[in-house]
Amino acid sequence: MRAVVFDQYGGPAQVRDVPDPRPADHGVVVRVKATGLCRSDWHGWQGHDPDITLPHVPGHELAGVVEAVGPRVGTWRPGDRVTVPFVCACGTCASCARGDHQVCERQTQPGFTHWGSFAQYVALDHADVNLVAVPQDMSFATAASLGCRFATAFRAVVQQGRATAGEWVAVHGCGGVGLSAVMIAAA
Ligand SMILES: [Zn+2]
Ligand SMILES: [Zn+2]
Questions:
Q1: CATH 3.90.180.10: which residues of the chain?
Q2: Bridge-based pairing state of the strands 2-6 and 13-17
Q3: What homologous superfamily does CATH list for 2-144?
Q4: How many other CB atoms are there within 10 angstroms of residue 71's CB atom?
Q5: How far apart are CA 135 and CA 166, in angstroms?
Q6: Ligand of minimum distance to the alpha carbon of 108
Q7: Cα 142–31–55 angle (5° rounding)?
């Protein structure tokens, strides 16, 4: 497949041919149809994330079509339109049992713990736990924004901030998460 690869932190990122990913027993490989660019990709490229090993393919905000399925996956089939949260949970640890998948003790993150979505294909682990179906009438570009920036902003504005009608919300820094916070607060 073709992918965006960097060989050193802060060094040039090049599009080149690399081996296709293979699905884990519990995972899938997704053909990437849309991917976001996030400040966290910049941190990874700068060498701030200890999970990354070189050479590396970034990208963790994605949507696409299931291409290949591991033998222990029950729910998903090739051709399914899907997206994922950027933290892929194991589904069985203590944090997952509490419903806190975002702090799973055995989490994987495409674009950090393994190669990500700046590529034609990306591997996603524990597919039955993590994949989310994308409706036919939602574009892949819209779906790709849900798993990182919108989920992060939703938790801040709705679950932590508990913003309600008639209140003002101030957003300091309108990048991906900030612009999502504006849209969620307005809604
Ligand atoms: Zn992100
Ligand atoms: Zn877990």
A1: 2-144
A2: antiparallel
A3: Medium-chain alcohol dehydrogenases, catalytic domain (3.90.180.10)
A4: 8
A5: 32
A6: 2
A7: 105
- Going by DSSP bridges, is the β-strand pair 62-69/13-17 parallel, antiparallel, or unpaired? unpaired
Q: Distance, CA 67 to ligand 1 centroid (Å)?
A: 23
Could you tell me the end-to-end alpha-carbon distance of the chain, in angstroms, rounded to an integer? 40
The CA-atom distances, in angstroms, between 1 and each of 15, 70, 111, 128, 135 are: 10, 19, 16, 25, 27
Whole-model pTM: value is 0.93
pLDDT, one tens digit per residue, over 20-79 is 999 999 999 999 999 999 999 999 999 999 999 999 999 999 999 999 999 999 999 999
Residue 156 CA to ligand 1 center (angstroms) comes to 15
